[in-house]
Amino acid sequence: MPASPPYHVAVLVLEGAKPLDVGIPAQVFTTRASMPYEVRVCGAAPGLVAGGDGLSYDVAHGVEALVWADIVFVPGYRHPDRDDPPPAVVDALIAAHRRGARLAAISTGAFALAATGLLDGRRATTHWHYTRALAARHPLVRVDENVLFVDEGTVLTSAGAASGIDLCLHILRGDLGVAASNHAARRLVAAPYRSGGQAQYVPRSVPEPLGERFAATREWALHRLAEHLTLDTLARHAAVSPRTLSRRFVEDTGYTPMQWVMRARIDVARELVERSERGIEQIAADVGLGTGANLRLHFQRILGTTPSEYRRTFAPGD
Known about the structure:
Layout: E1 7-12, H1 19-28, E2 37-42, E3 47-50, E4 56-59, H2 65-68, E5 71-74, H3 87-98, E6 102-105, H4 109-115, E7 123-124, H5 131-137, E8 142-143, E9 149-151, E10 155-158, H6 163-176, H7 178-188, H8 215-222, H9 231-238, H10 242-253, H11 257-275, H12 280-286, H13 292-303, H14 307-314
Parallel strand pairs: 1-2, 1-5, 5-6, 6-10, 7-8
Antiparallel strand pairs: 3-4, 9-10
Helix pairs in contact: 1-6, 6-7, 9-10, 11-13, 12-13
């Protein structure tokens, strides 16, 4: 449970910290009369911390600020898949959690929380570009690549930088109620609550293949998505048995052949939703999904939003 106000918020700046990720919690929870929060920006030690994107941070506090904090934010930082944070930082995060502090990661800050072991067995997310790396580096973490943020009670994670705003507003709603959260959203000129997940912001639902054994078959299928594609059809083109295709296709792409085809169809559908004025029924027919109901079902499952919401969000303005 959150501590009684005022809440103490520590923003932990690591080497290579992303400026927007640092600024979001500092801005949302900034110390002011109308907000019962006190914010301290800290690092592994007091002094200058080299950040990302040409900025550095002169922090007044070291990890001892985590002893004081009720909420600890870990902003994203560069190259999180290479090295863990310093042992003193990991130990301080674990100790803060044991004392009852909530730990909240923005974007790749999830790697720092994963290094503590506190995400093991729990759902978590991070920026879509790093979800596979997080799952590979920390296989006990249940990585959810489709959501804007995950609330596991005392450990919270969010996707890319802007979703840090969603996470902060979510925390505000829990601490102070909907009115306070909406007031903060208006002050930030942000949506109080965004529908859908981060999957809708990923350029492609179909991931880059890990191998090239069936590149020709994938290319062939991409030009025939409106047709009736089956596992047998794809296997015949690849000149292998359906069983062999299924096994090796998963090794190459992470998906079964038919899962890959469905995601490819949704990718084409989202382009048509975004860039054309075609109706949903026509788009469904164009990409081989048959009906608008079928398109809506798979669009929601894969992208976490509806075609109509997606069009409102991403269609070019007049």
